[in-house]
Specification:
Number of helices: 12
Helix content: 40-55%
Strand order of the largest sheet: 4-3-5-12-6-13
Strand content: 15-25%
């Protein structure tokens, strides 16, 4: 059994059982992957994949268990590499972060500026996506950590560290009739709404607020990008509901109405896989982003059994509001 064979198994699973796509992702040949998978199955004396001719149809029950362990072994192998790099080249490396557009655009620039100045030889990659995409990237090892604002249930198997609270503002063009009205869920229900893609899915704070009043909102447009939402508010497509931090002095043509009394605040967390070896520059990035998350605090939090316990651990910290 070889690590490369395990890597092939995991990649096939990641690529929806498409060996051609797995081969392209790993920069190797399809016949080579197929041969190694067959050799591993022969060595183990069982089938990992159920096939229909030359095509993989599904993963067998025993294959599911093997692939899960393969993921864990590959993660541990990466940890070994990281430990070696930490001692050999502590100021060199790669940090891959998944986050939302709002975080990348309005919160991270100053953090990144500070981080790059401190670690000029660490390559920093920031991937933007939805909560589901970020959870998948983190689980598969495509990123080292994720900065999330919603969809926390997707990260239950990860360590979730609370960073800060944030709320929303309603944005409208100057002269909009809503400016003269009392801002309430009932009045918002009278207008088409422009908001985040995940703003009305699952158990989001927006959905809860409208459901509590028994109002079905008219969602005219959704997007993951706050700048896109503002563009469509300017076009008159509807009333915008965005993170308050996303309304800046540059948006002088849009009026921001504080909606903190309408929606419960949301919380931004940093997530990473339990058992991951965090290099010093990763600890520093976390602390740059949320000063109360020192290396010592992060290490203690990771040892706790679940994320409820982590929240309790940080309950004495008064988190900032943005």
């Amino acid at each position: 059994m070889k690590l490369q064979q395990l890597r092939y198994l995991v990649e096939i699973a990641e690529q929806n059982l498409n060996i051609t796509d797995a081969a392209e992702a790993l920069y190797t040949s399809q016949p080579g992957i197929s041969k190694q998978v067959r050799l591993l199955e022969q060595e183990l004396g069982l089938e990992i994949f159920e096939r229909n001719g030359k095509h993989i149809k599904s993963i067998t029950p025993q294959g599911e268990m093997i692939i899960q362990i393969a993921r864990e072994l590959l993660a541990k192998a990466e940890n070994i590499k990281s430990i070696a790099q930490e001692f050999n080249r502590p100021d060199h490396g790669l940090l891959r972060i998944a986050t939302t557009n709002t975080q990348a655009r309005y919160v991270l620039p100053e953090v990144v500026k500070r981080f790059v100045k401190r670690y000029p030889n660490v390559s920093l990659q920031i991937n933007q996506g939805t909560p589901a995409q970020m959870a998948e990237q983190l689980a598969s090892g495509c990123v080292d950590m994720a900065i999330i604002t919603e969809g926390h249930n997707l990260f239950e198997d990860m360590a979730l560290l609370p960073c800060y609270h944030w709320n929303r503002s309603v944005i409208v063009p100057a002269g909009h009739p809503l400016i003269e009205q009392e801002l309430s869920i009932e009045t918002l229900g009278q207008y088409p709404l422009v908001t985040y893609t995940f703003g009305f899915m699952g158990a989001s704070d927006l959905a809860k607020a409208f459901n509590h009043k028994g109002i079905m909102p008219h969602i005219a447009f959704t997007a993951t990008d706050a700048d896109v939402l503002k563009t469509y508010v300017r076009l008159g497509l509807g009333v915008g509901i965005i993170a308050s931090m996303a309304h800046t002095p540059a948006d002088s043509d849009l009026i921001a109405l504080d909606a903190a009394h309408l929606f419960h605040y949301s919380s931004t967390h940093i997530a990473f896989k339990r058992g991951t070896f965090l290099r010093q520059y990763m600890y520093d990035f976390i602390e740059f982003f949320a000063p109360h998350l020192t290396k010592s605090a992060v290490e203690k939090a990771e040892l706790l059994n679940n994320n409820h316990a982590i929240d309790q651990f940080f309950s004495h910290i008064k988190l900032a509001h943005r």
